[in-house]
Amino acid sequence: MLLDTSGLLCLHHRAEPFHRQARDYYRSASRRLTHNYILAEFVALSNARRLPRPAALAFLTDLLRNPDIETVWVDQNLHNEAMELLAARPDKTYSLCDAVSFVLMRRRNMVEALTTDHHFDQEGFQRLLV
After folding, report:
1. Which residues lie below 8 Å from residue 87, measured CB to CB, with a gap of 6+?
2. pLDDT tens track of the chain, all 130 residues?
3. CB of 15 within 8 A of CB of 50?
4. CA dist., res. 79 & res. 37, Å (int)
5. What distance in Å separates the CA atoms of residue 24 and residue 18, rounded to the nearest whole number?
6. What is the pTM (predicted TM-score) of this model?
7. Maximum Cα interatomic distance, the chain, rounded to a whole number of Å
């Protein structure tokens, strides 16, 4: 499954409404994938939620060191493909981070995302946290 920004927040912050669900899905996943744009977005979201910065950064450090999680580093080709997807969907409010996730999930034949973001539904993926 793809670990999206909101899913990571739910894993990290026990007060999130979907914390238990996120933890259960995470533990049962056979495949875990994320990318560096999600990590950047997680830092911004944690700041916006006024979560303790040291704990959020430690969470990301642990995630990057976890051999059970593949972190993809967005290169120019992936970035450009995501930009093309955004241009092809002028009626949607997808972020660039979302578009990278969608492209990556299609490349990897993945359908499930640990996320609360309805954009994944709109693009035909399964949002696990509903």
Report:
1. none
2. 999 999 999 999 999 999 999 999 999 999 999 999 999 999 999 999 999 999 999 999 999 999 999 999 999 999 999 999 999 999 999 999 999 999 999 999 999 999 999 999 999 999 999 9
3. no
4. 10
5. 10
6. 0.96
7. 39
Supply 74's token pair.
């967005």
> Are the C-beta atoms of 3 and 68 separated by less than 8 Å?
no
Which residues are paired to 127 by β-bridges?
113
* Tokens 């994944």 -> residue: 120
Cα separation, 16 vs 82, in Å, equals: 29
CA distances, 30 to each of 2, 27, 82, 124, 125 (Å): 11, 8, 26, 21, 17
Torsion angle defined by CA atoms of residues 62, 69, 10 and 22, in that order, rounded to the nearest 10 degrees? -130
